[in-house]
Design goal:
BirA Bifunctional Protein, domain 2; Rossmann fold; five-stranded mixed β-sheet; alpha+beta; homodimer
Chain lengths: 432, 432
């Protein structure tokens, strides 16, 4: 199941010109441990043989951003920018396993990283690629909630908030502690009641198109804007225009996908432009399944602005399976079990299997020459839809009969031309 | 590059009815550390946060057999036997990195495991599947060196060797210490000079077909066979017949692949029937790239006989690249860069790209509207073979011209019908 999902993502990413890279699982701990919150979750590596413990401390990556940053830093001389890559790998987190929280899980990341500058239209492109990737999976509709950090920060500064990051952190808790809780936190941080009201009003704005523009402008006009906020207003305007263009571009490419949602904050210091969260219709409790944003530089030294999105694939699949949204059409690749009449004729069955394989039909030969009823039962238990009975008495090796064990229909067939219906050729992800 | 190789392997395995499973990277150390030799190489996991170190000790798997055994043990109630699976995952070994020896690398394993019994013809099937998988890669011809443990052990017992495992361990060093060294070791282990000569003569036998049968029978007849070796002779005969059938079956399916090589020992206690090693023509120094054998039980409690083979994929690819055997036809998935005439017309270029993608053609839109010469240079540097120039003045959106930047040829084209030559559609592994 996971494999089908990953293959689908790969295909969509590649169609849009994203190349796959894979980085090693292990990085020096100093590099991983930059962020104090995540560092508690890092698995460190030791050696079982005690005497070998002296080497530099290593840890398993807990996301794909840290190793990607190292990759770009190390390979900057030979990469062409803007560099677009996808990366689908396991990440490890030492948290307590619970529903939807694994010790190891797959993430799928796409990023485009520039050298010194990065055109804004790429903020729309990565969102469109991810929206298409999600649409290619048998999922309920995904809604991308978009915001822009310049808009938000310009507004916050406009109403006189100095600790913008601190205020963002509080607003980010809206779902958990409600508007009252956020207001209390803001008050404790020295934000005036008027400013707190204004930024909570801002966070309440959500529109399926560019119509938020009028709302946020009206809000600015009615808010306790401080004197000399011209810079803040310019930043706010720039962010607002950018967000409107982003929402329109995404909806033009993948209709009814994007909404402007002024509440989206996405952490703090990292993002500087577009920020993205994605929820599945009817599965809002799962939280965001695909998040990211635009950042000023991928690497610590600066100079590599980028934009990227990440899907928590294992968590998504776990929910898809758990909620009965999807299942695999069968557990095994084989479309056909070639029966064996008796062990003397095993070679006939093997030759037929090879003829089917030559035309891309996955099959296997019965492990034994039990009664046909038993061989059919074996196929049925494994979920193989067809059983081939070789005509061992015929002069034509390819002659035989093939039974669809779901319908019971059995028809004469030629191993050089017969094929299963297209939907039975390979296991598929099916809804329900 | 690695991705293409893994996809090729997956395709061949699935065509033969092997389903993919994936197990977690982390296992309890007690389970991993069974074998004392490998346990020195196990990476153990800790937590960066000191206070959380009390949990059960975990380690990263160093092969795919240990986690597969756990998987079969845990899922035995719901698996259908014989159970055939492939597994392509990273494994980790804490050895010093050196050429061809990674801290982490991919292995690709196939196994068929029975419940209580496993038909012998599966020993040929797994070898054939692996031979086909290797043949599907752009490699020099691969030779499978096959032996049979019953043949060898019957012979050793026939000439009066009691510590069969010890003698096998010595013969396994033939390449390293030569016949003289092996003879010395055998002498030290109490093996008679006559018996030592006999088993070295046995190890020297290598034939591309079943003709070794006459040679080993003649050798038995001329060797210092001890009295009452009837059981040993029966075991020897059984193994010899089985090996001859195996070599014939593999060569019938994949001509000129298998040789009977009576020197192959493959470790010790584990294998009980067929054993396999594989070398690449001209790259014998790389050692065996695909090895395995038949075993009496996958799990400690017994009852799950199986047969399997494993490819050291990363090591193989590293050699393929290092020796200049192969390269990728291009580094990026895009077959086409759609040029942008000016930023006002970016939407035209995006629409053309989507039309190409709808027909499976990977492409990307130029990140900027620089002069066409610069955009062509950008495509060239990234290895994208074609550049599309939209006819922004035409009424027909799909109209344009496409340039093959290798030949310089530029022709009018329609985005709804033009396609690159098949060999340019996707990046390929090419020889040299």
């Amino acid at each position: 199941m996971e494999v089908h999902v990953l293959d689908t993502l790969r295909e969509v990413f590649a169609l849009h010109g994203f190349g796959e890279i894979e980085t090693r699982s292990v990085e020096p701990v100093e590099r991983l441990a930059g962020d104090s919150e995540a560092s508690k979750e890092i698995y460190t590596l030791g050696r079982l043989a005690e005497e070998e413990r002296k080497e530099a401390k290593l840890g398993l990556h807990f996301d794909l951003t840290v190793p990607f940053a190292r990759y770009v830093e190390e390979n900057q001389g030979r990469l062409q920018f803007p560099f677009r890559r996808y990366q689908i790998q396991k990440v490890w987190r030492g948290e307590r396993p619970q529903e939807g929280r694994f010790r190891e899980f797959y993430q799928a990341d796409i990023d485009v990283v520039g050298r010194d500058q990065l055109p804004e239209h790429l903020e729309a492109e990565v969102a469109i690629v991810m929206a298409r990737a999600l649409a290619a999976l048998p999922l309920p509709p995904a809604r991308m909630h978009l915001n822009n950090r310049a808009l938000v920060e310009g507004f916050y500064r406009g109403v006189g908030i100095e600790d913008v990051a601190g205020a963002l952190r509080s607003v980010d808790k809206l779902d958990k502690i409600g508007a009252g809780g956020v207001r209390d936190e803001l008050h404790a941080k020295g934000v005036s009641a008027g400013a707190a009201d204004a930024i909570l009003e801002l966070a309440a704005i959500q529109t399926p198109d560019g119509s938020f523009l009028d709302l946020v402008e009206a809000l600015w006009d009615h808010s306790p804007v401080v004197e000399g906020a011209d810079d803040a207003r310019a930043e706010f305007d720039r962010g607002a225009r950018s967000l409107a263009a982003l929402v329109d571009a995404v909806n033009a490419a993948v209709p009814e996908t994007a909404v402007a949602d002024l509440r989206i904050a996405r952490g703090l210091d990292y993002y500087t432009g577009a920020v993205y969260e994605t929820v599945l219709d009817g599965h809002e409790d799962l939280g965001s399944i695909c998040s990211g944003g635009r950042y000023d530089s991928l690497v610590a030294g600066g100079g590599f602005p980028g934009v990227g999105l990440s899907i928590g694939v294992s968590r998504l699949i776990s929910r898809m399976l758990g909620a009965g949204l999807v299942s695999a059409s069968r557990a095994v690749p084989s479309a056909v079990l070639v029966a064996v009449t008796d062990e003397r004729h095993r070679g006939v069955s093997t030759a037929i299997a090879d003829r089917l394989r030559a035309r891309g039909i996955a099959c296997e030969v019965s492990p034994n020459a039990a009664k046909f009823g038993k061989q059919i039962q074996y196929a049925d238990r494994r979920g193989i839809p067809f059983v081939w009975f070789p005509a061992t008495e015929s002069a034509e090796l390819a002659d035989g009969e093939v039974k669809d064990i779901r319908s019971g229909d059995q028809v004469p067939a030629d191993a050089d031309s017969w094929a299963p219906p297209a939907e039975d050729l390979k296991p598929r992800i099916v809804r329900g």
